Q: What sequence folds into this?
């Protein structure tokens, strides 16, 4: 399969809305929230947008603190972790607004915070990100799972700053056909594309796994085009195993040590 960045509807929507946040003529707050369930292509899109807009990408962790998040931003901007949080905020804003200490202003750079759900465990992290946004004018885009948008909306003082809500819904049938066209090196017929979309529920991770198996099957059988009839009832991907309930009173068996 070809490793292509397929610009699905979700990708195009995210690109457009990040572009709006970077528009210097728009007199609006420039913070965003990108959310969606696993497998909808958020992480791949973040890598694409970070490269496209010369952005800064960091990932929050379950153990993240305001100090570690600020330290990560310092490292991404070519600095090092400092002892005082205020010094790190100052360094970050300086690097975001001035090039090499000169007085020449820089174009805003988006800051993407992946797994931002973890930031809501410590509101000091959100306050520091808001400070960086206020001082530098650089958009901050919080990226997380389905519940992050609801959590932000419930935090009024933070929600008012979010002007771009970017929901990733997964692939529709047209997106699935586009992924097959741009990544597969054999022709996947329409009926098989419909089957892949139906079986994967638009989860781009599973779509790519399924298409990879289809392509390998087609190549192995000398096919340049493959239909649902050719594929038959073969599984598209391997699900987790399903275990039956243990018999009542029977302890589970463990391998011998």
A:
């Amino acid at each position: 399969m070809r490793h292509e960045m397929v610009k699905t509807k979700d990708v195009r929507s995210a690109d457009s809305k990040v572009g709006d946040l970077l528009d210097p003529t728009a007199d609006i707050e420039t913070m965003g929230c990108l959310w969606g369930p696993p497998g909808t292509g958020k992480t791949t899109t973040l890598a694409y947008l970070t490269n496209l807009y010369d952005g800064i990408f960091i990932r929050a962790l379950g153990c993240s603190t305001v100090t570690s998040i600020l330290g990560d931003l310092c490292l991404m901007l070519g600095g090092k972790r400092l002892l005082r949080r205020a010094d790190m905020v100052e360094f970050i804003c300086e690097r975001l607004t001035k090039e090499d200490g000169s007085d020449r202003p820089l174009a805003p750079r988006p800051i993407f915070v992946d797994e931002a759900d973890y930031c809501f465990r410590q509101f000091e992290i959100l306050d520091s990100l808001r400070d960086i946004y206020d001082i530098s004018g650089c958009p901050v885009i919080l990226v997380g799972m389905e519940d992050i948008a609801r959590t932000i909306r419930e935090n009024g003082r933070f929600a008012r700053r979010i002007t771009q809500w970017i929901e990733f819904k997964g692939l529709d049938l047209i997106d699935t056909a586009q992924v097959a066209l741009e990544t597969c090196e054999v022709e996947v017929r329409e009926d098989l594309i419909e089957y892949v979309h139906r079986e994967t529920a638009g989860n781009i991770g599973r779509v790519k796994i399924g298409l990879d198996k289809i392509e390998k099957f087609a190549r192995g059988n000398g096919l340049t085009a493959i239909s649902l009839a050719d594929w038959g009832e073969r599984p598209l991907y391997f699900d987790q195993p399903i275990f039956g309930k243990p018999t009542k009173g029977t302890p589970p068996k463990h391998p011998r040590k």
